[in-house]
Amino acid sequence: MVEAQDANEPEDGAERDVTTPWESDQREVLRATFDQDAEAYDRSRPVAPDDVFDEALRLASLAPGSMVVEIGPGTGQATRQLAARGLQVVAVELGPQLAERARRNLAAFPHVDIVTASFETWDPGRARFDAVFACNSFHWIDPVIRFAKAAAVLRAGGHLVVLATPWVIPETADRFWWDVQDDWEAVGLLFDPSTMHPDLILDLAPAVRASGVFEEPTITRRLFEVTFTADGYATNLSTQSGVKELPENARADLVARVHQRVQEHGGRVTAHLLAMLTVARRAENPRP
C-alpha cells in the first residue's frame, strides 16, 4: 500500500475532525486498487534517500534487532531499507499481489515477515513493537483508529515513524511541470503547480498532537529528485491514485499525453519529492 503522493492524493498531514461516509468509502476503494498494479508499482515507485532512513532510526532510537511493524509495505521498497539495517520487521500489507511480490523481493531477509491483512483488522496478539513505521501509507488507514492502534501495539517508549514523500514543484523545477498541466486539464483535472510548492505541504504534527497518545513529534524535511524516462514516468503516473479515479478512457488519454510530452521534452523528466519524516514517542499518560 505504499503510495508516493501526487497532486490529487491525501497527505500524511493535518487531519480533519470528521470523516464522511463518502470519504471512508472512497478511501477503502482507492487503497485496494494499488494491488492491481503490483508489477508496475514495483518498477516505478521512487524511494527516499538512504540517509532519510538513517535519520528515522536515529530519531526513533532503533538499532539492529529492534522490532518494527510496517503499515502498507507495498512491494517492499522501504521495507528493504529497514531490513538492511538489521531491524526485525512485520510488514502488514492489504493487497495479496503486492504482499506476494514483497515476499519475493525480500526473500533474502529472514527477519522480515509479510502479513496479508489490513492494519485495521490485523491482530498482533501479545507482540509489542519498538516502532510502527509507515511510508506513504498512514493516510490510507481509518483516521478513527490509526493513532490509537499504532500506540496500542507499541512497547513503552516506542515510536511512531511516518515517512511521506509527496511530489512537489519548487521554483527551480523544470518548465515541464507547468506545461504538463495542459494535459491534466484536457482530461478534466486541475493541476496547479503553485499549490505544490514544498513550503505549502502540511506536516502531521497537528494530528499527532490531537491524537493524545503520542508526545510532541519531531519533523524533518528534505527535498530529493528522481529522473524518469518517458516510459518510466508513464508507468508511475498510471499507478497514482488521482489518476486511478479517472474513467478508463480518460486515464489512458492522460498517460499517453504525458508520455508524448516527456518524449518531446528530451525523453527524460526530473521529479521533485519532499521526504517528510515524522517521529513521535508513545505517550506515557495518554489523554482521553
Tags for this entry?
disordered N terminus, alpha/beta, 35% helix, 22% strand, 288 residues
Task: Tell me about this structure.
It is built from twelve helices and eight strands. The protein has a domain at 21-167 and 195-225 and 272-281: Rossmann fold (3-Layer(aba) Sandwich), CATH 3.40.50.150. Helices cover 35% and strands 22% of the residues. It has helices at residues 21-33, 38-44, 50-59, 77-84, 96-105, 146-152, 176-179, 181-186, 205-211, 230-238, 241-244, 248-264, and strands at 67-71, 88-93, 112-116, 129-135, 154-164, 167-168, 218-229, 268-281. The protein is α/β, with parallel strands linked by helices.
- CATH top level of the domain at 21-167 and 195-225 and 272-281 is Alpha Beta
N to C succession of SSEs: HHHEHEHEEHEEHHHEHHHE
State the CATH topology of the domain at 21-167 and 195-225 and 272-281: Rossmann fold
Class of secondary structure makeup: alpha/beta
CATH architecture of the domain at 21-167 and 195-225 and 272-281: 3-Layer(aba) Sandwich
The major β-sheet equals: 8 strands, mixed
Instruction: Look at the structure and give the mean pLDDT.
Output: 88
- Please tally the β strands and state the result: 8
Strand fraction: 15-25%
- As residue ranges, the low-confidence spans are 1-22
> CATH homologous superfamily name of the domain at 21-167 and 195-225 and 272-281?
Vaccinia Virus protein VP39
Helical percentage: 25-40%
Radius of gyration: 19 Å
Topology:
Layout: H1 21-33, H2 38-44, H3 50-59, E1 67-71, H4 77-84, E2 88-93, H5 96-105, E3 112-116, E4 129-135, H6 146-152, E5 154-164, E6 167-168, H7 176-179, H8 181-186, H9 205-211, E7 218-229, H10 230-238, H11 241-244, H12 248-264, E8 268-281
Parallel strand pairs: 1-2, 1-4, 2-3, 4-5
Antiparallel strand pairs: 5-8, 6-8, 7-8
Helix pairs in contact: 2-10, 10-12
